[in-house]
Write a structure and sequence with these properties.
With 301 residues, this protein is mainly alpha-helical. The chain folds into two domains: 79 residues, no CATH class; 188 residues, no CATH class. 65% of the residues lie in helices and 0% in strands. The chain has 17 helices and no strands. It is globular, with a radius of gyration of 20 Å. It starts with 5 loop residues before the first helix and ends with a helix.
Amino acid sequence: MTVISDRTANSFVDTVERRVDKGEIDIPMLPDTALQVIRVTQDPDSSAQDLLKVVQTNQAIVGKIMSTANSAAYASASGITSIQQAIGRLGMNIIRDIALASSLNARLFDAPGLEGHVQNACEHALMTALWNRRLAQHMHGDADTAFLCGLLHSVGLPIMMQEVVDVAESTGMEDITEQLEFVIDIAYELTPQATALALKSWKLPASINAIIGNYLGSRDTDSSLPTLADGGVQLDESAQQQSHFLAAAVDLARHSMVDFLDAAELLKLDSIQALGLNQQSLEQLIAAGDTVKSQFDAFSL
């Protein structure tokens, strides 16, 4: 393996950190369909027909809806052959989730040499979104907002992966795969800041920013973390609850992706304890693990 000089390594780190501090990182444009779906979902005056109009304009998403409707997780005895049948089978909530997951996937990011890591980051975000929705349903929270926050909670990670690739090229690191552990560590370290910058850039609803911002703040003590909620939106009780759901969902996703969902062990986690669940209640929740996994597989097709 090629060993980089201290000078090159320091130049790389300094450049990445400076770009993040100044908000100069390359944040991809959020697909228009995703933005419209988010706005419709967060607008209490929107109807199912409003959402349908949005998704029907994107053939890639229509195709994804059709493949999901015919997957093992959702398929009926007779095959689904039209978008209308698919919507009737899946319901509008699942349609919305498919549209968002299809828009916010690994193809949105460009990180040559780190494609596998970007894919893993996106898969963990999807699993977190599915568990977050399940948690919200189990504890009578807002399941729609929970899914969206789970999907976006670490969007800064793939953004930082494409950023470290770009900076590596400009600072003389010829083959980033030779320095994989080094550059990945930097990407993870700056993920909270990159997530905050992305959510502000995309001008998402203040409630979403506040929930994710509270989650990031609970996991990152760096005072330089950008404020997510424009105008200093205060977290109400519901938003605080949602941020607790998100923290627990991140841990549930991590454990379920390695097939380790043991209630007794999970109860030792701070994120689970914050929900006030006892072992019996947690066991009831994680009994849905097979359903969550089948939904993950269907969404990942």
